[in-house]
Amino acid sequence: METRQTKSKDLSAGFIIIGCSILACIFFFGVCAHPSHFDEKGHPLPGDVFGTLYQGGYVIPLVITLLLTVITLSLERFFALNRASGKDKNERFVTGVKRKIDEGNITEAIKLSDEQKGSIANIVREGLVRYDDVEDIPNITNSDKAELIQKEIDEATTLELPYLEKNLNIIAAISTLGTLFGLFGTVLGMIRAFAAMGNEGAPDSTALAVGISEALMNTALGIGTGALAIITYTYFSGRIQTMTNAVDEIGFAIGQSFIKRHGGLSR
């Protein structure tokens, strides 16, 4: 099946996360920490984003890792779901298959599935092949045969869903972790800011500014990462639901076509 071929090409999420963490560390310690972003007192240059980001503290690389992971996994899911959708638009494929089924031309419907490829086509093809097989099963009603066809489609869908939903649980987790790590960095920054204010005499304005900057940078980056994860998770979940609905629509059409052609009570 096509999905077995595409599964072997997918990168492991573990390697993706490790790669993103390495890139985050290189960016943070190699780019953001470069002396060109700071003045002679070690303060970030006015308007310098990289220097300001470096002031966010060591929680920043963790949040950047989560951000890069969301972006990478989202791109991976985007291309994977495009492959799973097949060559033609799902709506056009569903309409074409239903038309062939209504005409009783199962062979042509199978041919359309072979040409379409992808997860939906694989599931539909399993149901259509079962359509031909159950016609020769004796001593059961045609309604029972239609249920066997639907069961075959359900089983094929169950096998395909893990591939469609792969890595979505990680994106869902990051939608929470990104915000939590951002808040963790914010708390550390505020601790530093209050420590500067608690010194005897005049507060250390530099330490106070650094602490507030650390808190704000972590807050912004953490919330941004969590928001991006929620948006991408919602988008891909919606696409998967649409594909599942298309399979259910064809599966129902196949069962109804079988009963209509053969009669529900005949044996």
Q: Give the quaternary arrangement of the chains.
A: single chain
Summed over residues and divided by their number, the pLDDT gives a mean of 81
What is the count of structural domains?
Answer: 1
CA(first)-CA(last) distance: 33 Å
The biggest beta sheet reads: none
Rounded Rg = 28 Å
N-to-C series of helices and strands: HHHHHHHHHH
How would you describe the shape? Answer: rod-shaped
Separate helix tally: 10
Quickly give the structural class: mainly alpha
> Any low-confidence stretches, pLDDT <50, length ≥5?
1-10
Number of strands: 0
Q: Portion of residues in helices?
A: over 70%
Percentage beta strand: under 5%
List keywords for this structure.
10 helices, mainly alpha
Topology:
Blueprint: H1 2-7, H2 13-32, H3 49-54, H4 60-85, H5 90-102, H6 106-116, H7 118-134, H8 142-164, H9 168-197, H10 205-262
Helix pairs in contact: 2-4, 4-7, 4-9, 4-10, 5-6, 5-10, 6-7, 7-8, 7-10, 8-10, 9-10
Report on this model:
The protein has 10 helices and no strands. By secondary structure, the protein is mainly α. It has one domain (1-267). The longest helix is centred in the C-terminal third of the chain and has 58 residues, at 205-262. Mean pLDDT is 81; it is low at 1-10.
Quick overview of this protein structure:
The protein is mainly α. It has ten helices and no strands.
